[in-house]
Amino acid sequence: MACFWLDEHQEHVANVSLGLEWKTGIAAKDWDSVAKKEKIEGVELDLKRLEASVESIHQNLIYLKEREAEMREVSEQTNGRVAWFSIMALSVCIAVATFQVWYLTRYFQKKKLI
Asked: What family, per the record (predicted)?
């Protein structure tokens, strides 16, 4: 959640510019405080940072695999539904064509045109 406001004494300002730097995940972690808390520095801090980055990437890959599986399942269901709809639409077209041929044949026979 983020809140934005203007001070009351600046109501006459027509243009307001807003710069926003939004960090999430591993980028939002304060590595300086981690280094002080765990009393590490240099290469060890870099290794911690890289380990956290790798873990974040791994979690993201797992999430993407799950989403891909869900999307594949939905796609297969949709393909099945479209196939059934196509078969039913073709059946209706054939039935209507058959009825038209039967009706016109009967009509022309009554008018003695055939």
From this structure: Belongs to the EMP24/GP25L family.
